[in-house]
Amino acid sequence: MVRPSANVVQLLSPSVLPSHATLTSVNMRVASKLFLVMGFGYIFPYCAMMQPVDYWTTLFPNFNLVFALSCVYNVANILTFVVILWRSRTPQYSLQIVGGFAVQVVVLILVPLSYYFLSGESQHLVMVLTSTGVLAIASSFLDSAVFSLASLFPKGALENVQLGIGFSNLITATYRLVTKAMFPSHLVVESSMMYFGVGALTVVGGVVAYLMLKRLAIARETLKTAPQQQQSFQRSLWTKILLNEVLLALSYLCSLLLWPGVVSNIPSYNFPSLNANGWWPLLLMALFALSDVVGRFAASKCRLGITRLTVWKVVLPRFALVPLMVCAATGHTFTHDGVSVLFVTLLGLSGGFACTLAVVVVSDCVDDSEKGATGVASAFFINLGIVLGATLSVGLANCMGLAPL
User: Fold this and answer.
1) N or C: where does the chain have the smaller number of CB atoms within 10 Å of the terminal CB?
2) Range of the domain at 303
3) According to its UniProt record, where is this protein located (predicted)?
């Protein structure tokens, strides 16, 4: 009988084979990256609708569509979330995630194509706002499923979903800048068609990420036990999480109060030509997106000692930026581009950092068996903050004369 060599015996030794803990750690690292892609993908269409300010100005020269889009999207989104919370059922992950991404792709294809088969500003307005509402409903089902699923995973999943959200805003801003630069300045429609087309292809990546996630051992184990871990929203759960959920909503409210509406209306005081060709608002939107990603990345690496009891310290001070940026947008006191850049950068950095920490510390308030329901609740409060911020933003814009609604 031939005996295996010493090298073969050593390779087969249990001490050399990867341990269960090692495999789980590797699986979790891969899962975290896939959650980043899913977080990037599910919020991408909303960001995609917000970014092409120059295209919306071309279609609606006498109507500031950015404010209306934000309001329609967020109202439809929050109403759908109310229904989801009222039903209080375990999310159907595959149906909600794959189906949600599919609807988003269809909308991102139909919105630009409608330019060629609709005529008149009113028809275009109905099409764009209706599509935005459909997009919001699909995104809310997708949103609740992604957050609920990420909450069931070990530390790292939620942080990467938040980081993905930030990347989504940055990538859409980059897409718009690149597609605009590829065409002469007067070919706004053509550059926008390319922008939406690339955006639709990008969303498909979210479906691929989810299908890859399902194949991981850690995901199969988590999905197998998910029905037992999901709970209805009992009073005891709300007692634990309500204060932190309110702070989470406030962190997003502050950002949406100023972005995209106020940010996109800050003019260039030192280079007026950038206002005429539409570059300045796009540059400010891109700067906000980049700063937001940096803030989210910093929060995923270091909490700076922030806990569920002290997270208010990074949420509430951000509201000091509201009057400062309103002054910059209306030409009062702050009339230098350097100051505008500083304000937008601070808004993005603080927003990314505060929003990420606010959602992560909520999970510190509950037991493992309550994390799935907590994830759905967090998604609801995020969207509640967004819709309140967007609604207040419309009122703020009307007061400032920025949105002729």
Assistant:
1) N
2) 27-400
3) Membrane
